[in-house]
């Protein structure tokens, strides 16, 4: 399988290095607000992580359409975000013989 690679804006990567520790950067520059800066940044190839930028490749995919919608309409993002959090909160984990809850997800038993 060939995966299309999206180049990140090199100026954005360079400015992130000046924030502090060379090995660390903030993954969310507005951690106390739910807003759409993340999606606007993807339009300009300023995704923090390569995997983030894969949401928007500019090829007309379904994820491209969502990124464009959310970048222009913060209320659409906030509404969908709220709905998804409620859905995730309603997930009932399987317990007993039907499932297993790991105490440490990094360890396989």
Automatic annotation (TrEMBL):
Its EC number is 1.11.1.7. It comes from the Eukaryota. Its cofactor is heme b; Ca(2+). One of its GO terms (molecular function) is lactoperoxidase activity. Residues 30-109 form the Plant heme peroxidase family profile domain. It is an enzyme of class 1 (oxidoreductase). SUPFAM superfamilies: Heme-dependent peroxidases. Ca(2+) binds at residue 28. It catalyses: 2 a phenolic donor + H2O2 = 2 a phenolic radical donor + 2 H2O. Binds 2 calcium ions per subunit. PROSITE patterns: PEROXIDASE_4 (PS50873). GO terms for biological process: response to oxidative stress. Gene3D superfamilies: Peroxidase, domain 2. Keywords: Calcium, Heme, Iron, Metal-binding, Oxidoreductase, Peroxidase. Belongs to the peroxidase family. This is peroxidase. It comes from Medicago truncatula. The lineage of its organism: Eukaryota, Viridiplantae, Streptophyta, Embryophyta, Tracheophyta.
């Amino acid at each position: 399988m060939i995966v299309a690679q999206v180049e990140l804006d090199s100026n954005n990567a360079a400015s992130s290095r000046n924030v502090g520790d060379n090995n660390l950067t903030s993954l969310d520059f507005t951690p106390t607000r739910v807003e759409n800066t993340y999606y606007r940044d993807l339009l300009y190839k300023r995704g923090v992580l390569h995997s983030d930028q894969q949401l928007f490749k500019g090829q007309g995919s379904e994820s491209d359409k969502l990124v464009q919608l959310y970048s222009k309409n913060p209320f659409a993002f906030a509404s969908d975000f709220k709905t998804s959090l409620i859905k995730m909160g309603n997930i009932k984990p399987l317990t007993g013989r039907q499932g297993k809850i790991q105490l440490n997800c990094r360890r396989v038993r």
